[in-house]
Amino acid sequence: LKMSWFWFYLPLHLLMAACLCHSIKAPTTNSQQSFKTDLFNFYHSLMLADGKETTVHLLKDIPKRYYFVLEEGRALAPFTITVTPCDVPIEWSILVHKASASFLGKAARGDHDTEEVSKSQKAPSMVSTIFNYKGNSVETYMGMSSHSALYMLEFLSTERDTHITVYLTTDTTSGQLYPELPVDPRIDVIGIGHTTVTLTWKHSPSVLQHRENIQYCLLVNEKHNYKSLCAAETAIRSSGMKLPPTLALSLSPYLLEPQQVMILSNSELSIINKASSGEVRQICMGTKNTYTVLNLSPSTQYYFDIFIVNLLTNASAAYTGTFARTLEEPEPKVTELKDGKVIQVVLDGKKQKFYSLQYQARHKKIQFTFQLCRGQVRVHITKNGKTVALENISGLRYFLLKGKLLDTYLVQLRSTEESNSSVKVQVSPHFHKPLFPLLPESLKIKSFSKLRTCNSVTIAWLGTQEESKYCVYKKRIEEDQVWMELRSADRCSGPESRHKSEKVLCKYFYDINLQRAVTTETIKGLDAGTLYLFDVYLFGPSGIPVRYHSKVVKTRKKC
């Protein structure tokens, strides 16, 4: 047998006469009658291509039919049909119409006459359903035919509009369009952590034969497994994400949507889609058959699907998906706070973990003091399980709280930036002995542009009503260092971290009238056209310094 699209050569009136004759013979089922009705009008029907994957769009409750013909030419030739639903379950079936072999053969060649047509009308004919299926799995039918026959594929979606792919081939000797799955297509979970899952799977025979054209792609999501890459992509698009066709399987560049992140490292392509339904990751890792998925959320169930993909044809086959739940995050360690003791906490911005501090009150009134050293920190204070303070802090922040003896306070700290943050914390009932100095209204340093010269600058800063010590430091920097210097400055570090050559002066001052509590200083001996970083440190009775916000000033190039 061989494939022949004989209707291109068959005169329409002969074909219709043959079909009408067959339709009078023998009682038929509804499907068979529908088949014969289509045969009567199939001169405008859809023909299914051989050896090519066809995308079929289905409207809800409206059947769609495709045809192909097997013509007598050699005995017992096989053919296969693979149907891949890309969304909802569908119904599909294969019907066959067998007719006179000599008539179909001669008609295909155009070698016919009126007498032959008359004979064909008397030839026996039979319409039968040889296969039907309902579901959303990828299904393949393998058939063998020894008669000339016209086949019809009927597809129906009863849930909603959808699309599918159909692949027909009568050439089973030159290799399959789809990559081959191993005998055991299951994915094994061999390791589970708080934020990681390690997977392994059997190699596809296609990888061993065509390594350069085959690769594995992994889909990770929080909803369910997908039975085909086509179905996965449809679900991602329907969630509001626009996804390039077939997951950038050719690794060609394309424009990502704002909700997409593409990561290419160590020959692995990762696409992360953000949506309200959860995060969806797609990772292509070449021909490795073991992979560890990183940066997952603790105590979360994930679904994993592996697709073996032919990069030349974009055809794919799906392994049997699996799922795993990451381990629960361990309870954070709680550090006990002691009266008057200062502790400095460094917070990991990437992991976004809470750092917990606990304090049991020995007085009815207590005061929490936070000094932000670097980054941005969110503070959450609870008393006996109820929130009493919640805010992002900057600079120096005090919380005066009232309660009962033995009340339990829990302080949770978290960095609000991706970079690390740090903060100093103290709790104390002794309000009359403040740990930090009295602060001015603002910790900004001001410079006077009109007073700048080639070798000097004038700066000013606010003071307070109590006499305090102020020390000024300077540091020469380059243009490309400004952002890093300001970004990485540790506002909790004191002059002990500075080089002695950077010290300019120390002075005491105060003013009862806050409006006059301002001091200025002219720093001389500078180089022309040069950037300088200036810092002022304020010391209180306890000796713990508070650092003003750094100021960058450039001397004049010409005077």
TrEMBL record:
Domain Fibronectin type-III as annotated: residue spans: 179-316, 437-545
Q: Which PANTHER family match?
A: NEURON-DERIVED NEUROTROPHIC FACTOR, PROTEIN NDNF
| Protein name per its UniProtKB record | Protein NDNF
Specify the signal sequence span: 1-21
In Pfam terms, one family for this protein is NDNF
Q: What does this protein do?
A: Secretory protein that plays a role in various cellular processes. Acts as a chemorepellent acting on gonadotropin-releasing hormone (GnRH) expressing neurons regulating their migration to the hypothalamus. Also promotes neuron migration, growth and survival as well as neurite outgrowth and is involved in the development of the olfactory system. May also act through the regulation of growth factors activity and downstream signaling. Also regulates extracellular matrix assembly and cell adhesiveness.
Transferase recorded as keyword: no
